[in-house]
Write a structure and sequence with these properties.
The protein has 19 helices and 14 strands. It is globular. The protein has 4 domains: 175 residues, Rossmann fold (3-Layer(aba) Sandwich); 155 residues, Aldolase class I (TIM Barrel), CATH 3.20.20.70; 96 residues, no CATH class; 26 residues, no CATH class. The protein is α/β, with parallel strands linked by helices. 45% of the residues lie in helices and 12% in strands.
Length: 507
Amino acid sequence: MSIVLLEHPRPRSPERYESVVNTPLSACLMTGYIASTLLSRQHDVAVVDANLYEWSFDRTVQELKEKSFKLLGVHLVYLWEYSSDILEALSCIKKSNPDIHINLYGHFPTFAFKDLLTEHPFIDSITIGEPEGTFLELADAVVNNRGNSALCTIDGLAFNASNSKTDGTVVKDDIVWNRPRKPDSNLDNLPSPFRNDYELKKKKGISTYILASRGCYGKCTFCYLDNFYGDESQWRGRSPENIFKEISDIYDKHGERYFYFADANFFGPGRKGKERARELAKLLIDNGINIKFGIECRVNDVEDTTIETLVRSGLVDVFLGVESGSQRSLTKFRKFTTVEENRSAIYTLRKFGIEPNYGFIMFEPDSSLADVRANFEFLKEMKMLNIPSITAHLLHHKQTIFQGTFDYKIKSNGSRPDSEITYECDYEFKEKSVEVLSEDINTFCLQSLKEIFDNRDQKNMEVDSCTYDENDLFSRKMNEKLIEHFEDSLSAFENSEEKALTTDLHG
């Protein structure tokens, strides 16, 4: 084989009890789309899903050492404490076979490419942004030993020129960053993603993902998705007919009955976005495709007619970008939504039998105690604090600021976090009381989550099982404990602040 595409191990940190937050679900299909693009051009390619196989880093290194290939493409995911382990594993692979070309793609390397190429010279190149076209041209160049002269012509590629001098071309700088690649304007032209190890994924309960669109029409300050696709990025949707064909092919071939749309924004902008969604629903209904599916969307996308039609076609799960119960925070995030729209979207979904999952930021750098209180009261009012694992997540969630976001530009001061790569921004809260409160809640919630997972392990339950049984005394008591602790801690800080203000006013 000439090309290997690697999904590296993604171990859970003992300090974190959540899934990787910086990788939108669309990333799960990046490797599949690259593979199908390469296969359509008759490249010899293999997909190695070390994460799916539950390999260790050592096992991954050993397995790849035993293979012969020219190009290793790696979907690099930022894993906080484990990021250095991933890079060390790739370094070992390179040492065993210095002639292979290692390319990184994904959200993390797109925004951290300068640091990655500079600090890890064994990395030959990085695909920046939308990967298919760039990686295809890279594959043509590497497989045919074309050297630097060819690499210099590939839009969307950054590379270490000192690692590739096959053709004798001299490049002025060691690190070369070619011009950005324009996003593909017609996603219907892309071949359906290659789906490796389908039966194993099904056995493990991994959802079958569909990517029906790319980009987002929103400009939220905490999100880098729009910037990932470049300055000319905009929301792009596949046609209903094209999406339907992919679903029906999987439905017929594998008998799959549940799909999850990995789109950051399923609907797309405005009236046309909702019409497109209803057209897809009609195709599913009219053709007797009996499936269930989930989507992700903004609160302003939710309205009765469209949701009702989607529910009839199989919609059962919605991840809703609520983000905050404080209007000041929503405005600061540039959500261009209101707290009332948040309420309306939740009520609408519940009316059609859907209890959504939520995107929510309890603590952000500029939070005041009033913002935190508004968030807490909103969660209680909307009855979102029922399942202990979800309650813990919603109550402790602190904004993580990554490169590529507007907030990173504002808050980054050049300091580095624990990671050696400046991808995640350290920041201080504007108000000290909020910082101390956040630390207290974070510690308490993580301890509680550990208890939850330990309890599940004892009962031989799945880690991600969030089923809430009102008759389960452990779950009920844990949920009550989480809410009570948050209320007590927040009230203590509010009372201290009020006391201090009163003292100032009266001398």
